[in-house]
Design a protein that fits this description.
With 168 residues, the protein is mainly α. It is built from eight helices and no strands.
Length: 168
């Protein structure tokens, strides 16, 4: 099924049924959450809960995609708070053995992403990975498109600096 952009979805909403919305948006929402939480089961839980809450309020929502993403981001923040509280109660694990170079690079990239400010990381994931425009990401994050572009620019510059990528 082809992807419907949020601005198209907002115009179609009066004639769009929830099933069509779900089938066009769920996979992208799940993939976005997976990139952010890096845990398949948790990403599925967040995406499913966000879609369920969207369904519950379907008649009163003007921008269903924006609502679903905002809900998912809020659920992710709650999950992170619970995770941090649980981690604080556990003893730290001993460091593991050396991993292969590819795994080390992946860990470095994930660490660099995790070290970005939350606002920059969210904007970067929505624009660079979920393939949203700055306008679409701005609606999801509740900010202006110019702010999205600025956050993405700063995030990319920080990642280039940390990962040793080309300047510019």
């Amino acid at each position: 099924m082809r992807h419907i952009r949020p601005e198209q979805l907002a115009r179609l909403k009066p004639v769009l049924d929830y099933d069509t919305f779900f089938h066009t948006e769920y996979q992208r929402l799940f993939q976005t959450m997976y990139l952010l939480v890096r845990d398949r089961a948790q990403a599925e839980d967040i995406a499913q809960e966000a879609m369920a809450r969207t369904y519950e309020r379907w008649r009163g929502i003007r921008d269903p995609a924006g609502y679903a993403y905002r809900t998912a981001f809020n659920l992710r923040r709650s999950w992170l708070r619970r995770l941090a509280m649980a981690a604080a109660k556990r003893p730290k694990p001993a460091p593991g053995r050396d991993e292969v170079e590819a795994a080390e690079q992946r860990v470095d990239v994930l660490r660099a992403l995790a070290e970005l400010p939350r606002t920059q990381r969210e904007a970067l994931v929505l624009v660079a990975w979920a393939d949203m425009t700055a306008e679409e990401a701005g609606r999801v994050l509740g900010i202006q498109p110019v702010s999205v572009r600025g956050r993405v620019h700063r995030a990319k510059a920080t990642l280039r600096q940390r990962m040793g990528g080309p300047d510019g």
